[in-house]
Design a protein that fits this description.
By secondary structure, this protein is an all-beta fold. It is 2% helix and 46% strand. It has one helix and 32 strands. The radius of gyration is 23 Å and the shape is globular. The relative contact order is 0.11.
């Protein structure tokens, strides 16, 4: 539970009664006796506000790792208004597409996108779209919607390529690409929202913001510095590593996985934060690490592994490398196969300036670990503390 206000409570009760596992960050309450009360385990009563609280064990492998999450800045996806003028919806069937799963519909789909009078590309339901070659998402199109339309299986490795265009943000949604071998490539400075799409191969080489919502895919975030916010991400099967973060800024709320691959590799000074993870073990795991951190920063909160009809787990939950030093958090060291929090970083990511978003408050720290030349702003009650990258101590203000 994060970034929450619980109001109009009963002064004799707690806002949250926790008898299980709970990770809470930036949570406040009013009208309640306590914000959190536990009747089992630690038997704690916690007043408001809560900067960060973990009901179960916090794991670290290096002595300078903080006992807190990475707390990346959270950004909501842009709202793109529905086009109510249906004359601006482009149907590839009107541009020569067959939709029979046999004919190559790439050219017709591209013609529909490039029609300057259209803002929405619509793939009609109950059609099967074969794509051989590249379809460029450009021009005036701000929404590509499939209404559960399917990309034909074995579509010869076709690609949708999100490139430059007039719309500042584009939604790509409700298209099923399972068994099709078709990719979606982010290669733009614009913002892309990928929502409710199934099993596209996803490669990000662009610099524009990326939002992923309710998507089963194995994304490869290859552009250092790109910003990604994923809500309900389901990487499984396929590649040796399901999710690659090569120097990007990756925030995940809700991770569900299965099968035997390493789930997330963070490298090249990337930042990865996962809030809530369900690791669904279906097979025997040998020499496979659940998460890997290579000279980068990451934290994982609320990660639980369940064994389904098998009795072996990932042998290593987290492999973390700093310089020449490699450490491994083994499964037998993780109580009940549940990590309340794993902290694997020394440097926090610079705070992002987000317009029209609730500020993301940060927990107290002894130093500002940001890259040279950057600034970080610590928001406190009634004041702002501007810090440089010198690692100086903060001695003023009421930290939240």
């Amino acid at each position: 539970l994060i970034e929450s206000e619980l109001t109009e409570g009963n002064s004799k009760t707690a806002a949250i009664l926790n008898d299980g596992k709970l990770f809470a960050r930036n949570v406040s309450s009013s009208g309640y006796q306590f914000t959190i009360q536990e009747s089992k385990g630690k038997m704690r009563s916690i007043p408001s506000p809560i900067v960060e609280d973990v009901s179960h064990s916090i794991y670290t492998q290096f002595p300078n790792s903080p006992q807190s999450s990475l707390n990346l800045t959270i950004k909501d996806p842009p709202t793109i208004a529905w086009e109510k003028d249906f004359s601006k919806w482009a149907n590839p069937m009107n541009y020569g597409a067959k939709g029979d799963g046999q004919s190559n519909d790439r050219e017709a789909i591209q013609k529909a996108i490039d029609d300057p009078t259209k803002t929405v590309l619509y793939l009609p339901f109950k059609k099967s779209w074969k794509i051989k070659g590249d379809v460029m998402i450009r021009g005036n199109i701000n929404r590509v919607i499939g209404c559960e339309g399917k990309i034909a299986p074995n579509s010869d490795s076709g690609r949708f390529v999100f490139t430059e265009g007039t719309a500042p943000a584009v939604v790509f949604e409700r298209i099923d690409a399972q068994y099709s071998n078709v990719s979606l490539v982010h290669a733009s400075t614009r913002t892309l929202v990928m929502s409710s799409c199934s099993h596209f191969k996803f490669i990000s080489e662009g610099t524009g913001d990326l939002f992923m919502e309710d998507v089963p895919t194995n994304p490869q975030f290859l552009k250092p510095g790109q910003r990604i916010w994923a809500r309900q991400l389901n990487p499984e099967s396929g590649e040796i590593v399901n999710v690659v973060n090569n120097g990007a800024y990756l925030w995940i709320l809700g991770l569900k996985t299965e099968h035997v691959q390493t789930k997330i590799l963070t490298k090249n000074k990337g930042f990865t934060e996962v809030l809530g993870g369900y690791i669904y073990a279906t097979k025997t795991y040998e020499k496979i690490n659940l998460f890997e951190i290579e000279n980068s920063s990451a934290s994982f909160a609320g990660i639980s592994e369940k064994l389904i009809n098998v009795y072996t787990t990932f042998p290593v939950f987290v492999k973390e490398t700093r310089g020449e030093v490699i450490k491994e958090l083994k499964a037998e060291e993780v109580s009940s196969l549940y990590m309340g929090l794993y902290s694997g970083y020394t440097e926090r990511a610079p705070t992002l300036v987000i317009q029209n978003n609730t500020p993301s408050y940060r927990p107290k720290s002894d130093k500002l670990g940001v890259n040279s030349g950057n600034k970080i702003v610590w928001r406190a009650e009634g004041t702002e503390i501007n810090g440089d990258a010198t690692g100086r101590h903060i001695k003023e203000g009421k930290q939240r």
